[in-house]
């Protein structure tokens, strides 16, 4: 007899660091998912801003299947065609000259931070090691990246943590001016804070960071793991702001659902990562690279990027309409298809309660912190799915209001 896993098996067999919803999806197509009982859902969560082209997009499926029949993995003792094509495509489409491939966002940031430290060390000596990051920021779950991240709950109890890291206030240049000095090697920032509540940086803030970094010979690192890969309506958010970083990290939407990450930088900085200084067994994996290349070539087209902006407006109209009726949101914000709705005072701390109600109504959503409902759907979600999903979300919100 075939064994059918249940939600109870999660509690039985998995370490308890997650609390997944009760339903277990088993199949996906576009922006729809079906669970073990055959119930259908509209997906506004997108695997946390990962499934950039929805589920099982035919172009990605074909890239994966074609590569699966050819070659999966070699390690970095050899290079491979998909990895080289992906690196070339990223260089041609961005500010970067050089690419480091890995398997996740945390790893891409770990590489970025190590690169910044090593660059400063080799060019200015070992005292230049200070990293400035921002409160509420999120950069991954390795010990270095949780220490750099601005949410202490993620590093508490895991000490001793790496040193030389200070935190300023996001969108507050004065708080950065107070901390930056000639011993600063890097500022790392999300152009739009994701986990921290979907908070876009202001134009002046990013421009000011660029200027401060230039003045103090520090590197500007943009963590675009969540904000990038078409989600802002441009390939990366830095393009929308017109502020160019020295190092950029990508993951999440980059693979459209296949684990892959990338760190992009300039030749002059990259050159300190000489033979043997850093690495990853899976980095540049052929399957991952083949899928990421297909995703990149599909996303970075005028049709898809312009569609992101149109869909943003449609989501926003729905959220505003719902809010006019129920008054649950204080603010609706975000860029492209990364949208946050901050709960109003009456519903403070209760964004999480929407999620199971939404699932019962047939729509999957996310939160970003206790006060923000977050939507990170496919960049090509059909408009009919937006409309239907928002009707379902409205029913969930009506129930939240009734429960209050
Ligand atoms: C999700 C995220 C990460 C971590 O990515 P993983 O793939 O989970 O390691 C890093 N930075 C930002 C901004 C993210 O949203």
From TrEMBL:
Its main location: cytoplasm. SUPFAM superfamilies: PLP-dependent transferases. Keywords: Amino-acid biosynthesis, Aminotransferase, Arginine biosynthesis, Cytoplasm, Pyridoxal phosphate, Transferase. Its cofactor is pyridoxal 5'-phosphate. Its EC number is 2.6.1.11. One of its GO terms (molecular function) is identical protein binding. It is found in: Cytoplasm. It is an enzyme of class 2 (transferase). GO terms for biological process: L-arginine biosynthetic process. The modification N6-(pyridoxal phosphate)lysine is found at residue 252. Pfam families: Aminotran_3. Binds 1 pyridoxal phosphate per subunit. N(2)-acetyl-L-ornithine binds at residues 141, 280. Pyridoxal 5'-phosphate binds at residues 138, 223-226, 281. Pathway: Amino-acid biosynthesis; L-arginine biosynthesis; N(2)-acetyl-L-ornithine from L-glutamate: step 4/4. GO terms for cellular component: cytoplasm. It catalyses: N(2)-acetyl-L-ornithine + 2-oxoglutarate = N-acetyl-L-glutamate 5-semialdehyde + L-glutamate. May also have succinyldiaminopimelate aminotransferase activity, thus carrying out the corresponding step in lysine biosynthesis. Homodimer. Belongs to the class-III pyridoxal-phosphate-dependent aminotransferase family. ArgD subfamily. This is Acetylornithine aminotransferase. It comes from Modicisalibacter xianhensis.
């Amino acid at each position: 007899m075939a064994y059918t896993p249940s939600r109870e098996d999660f509690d039985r067999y998995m370490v308890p660091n997650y609390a997944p919803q009760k339903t277990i999806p088993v199949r996906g197509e576009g922006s729809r998912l079906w669970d073990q009982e055959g119930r259908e859902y509209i997906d506004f969560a997108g695997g946390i801003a990962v499934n950039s082209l929805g589920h099982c997009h035919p172009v990605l499926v074909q890239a994966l299947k074609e590569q699966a029949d050819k070659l999966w993995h070699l390690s970095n003792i050899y290079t491979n065609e998909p990895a080289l094509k992906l690196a070339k495509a990223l260089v041609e489409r961005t500010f970067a000259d050089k690419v480091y491939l890995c398997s996740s966002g945390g790893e891409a940031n770990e590489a970025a931070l190590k690169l910044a430290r090593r660059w400063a060390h080799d060019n200015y000596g070992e005292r230049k090691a200070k990293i400035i990051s921002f409160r509420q920021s999120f950069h991954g779950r390795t010990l270095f990246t949780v220490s750099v991240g601005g949410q202490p709950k993620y590093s508490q109890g895991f000490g001793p943590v790496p040193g030389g890291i200070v935190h300023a206030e996001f969108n507050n240049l004065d708080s950065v001016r107070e901390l930056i000095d000639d011993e600063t090697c890097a500022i790392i920032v999300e152009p739009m804070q994701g986990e921290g509540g979907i908070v876009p940086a202001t134009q002046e803030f990013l421009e000011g960071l660029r200027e401060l970094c230039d003045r103090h010979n520090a590197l500007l690192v943009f963590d675009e793991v969540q904000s990038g890969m078409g989600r802002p309506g441009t390939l990366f958010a830095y393009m929308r702001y017109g502020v160019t970083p020295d190092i950029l990290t990508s993951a999440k939407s980059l693979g459209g659902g296949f684990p892959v990450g990338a760190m992009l930088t300039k030749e002059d900085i990259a050159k300190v990562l000489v033979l043997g200084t850093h690495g990853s067994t899976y980095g540049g994996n052929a399957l991952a690279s083949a899928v990421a290349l297909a995703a990149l070539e599909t996303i970075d087209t005028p049709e898809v990027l312009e569609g992101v902006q149109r869909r943003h407006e449609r989501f926003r109209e729905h959220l505003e309409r719902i809010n006019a009726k129920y008054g649950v949101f204080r603010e609706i914000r975000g860029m492209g298809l990364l949208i946050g709705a901050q709960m109003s005072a009456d519903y403070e701390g209760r964004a999480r309660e929407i999620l199971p109600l939404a699932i019962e109504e047939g729509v999957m959503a996310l939160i970003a912190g206790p006060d923000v409902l977050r939507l990170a759907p496919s960049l090509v979600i059909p408009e009919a799915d937006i409309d239907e999903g928002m009707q379902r979300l409205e029913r969930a919100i009506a129930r939240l209001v009734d429960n209050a």
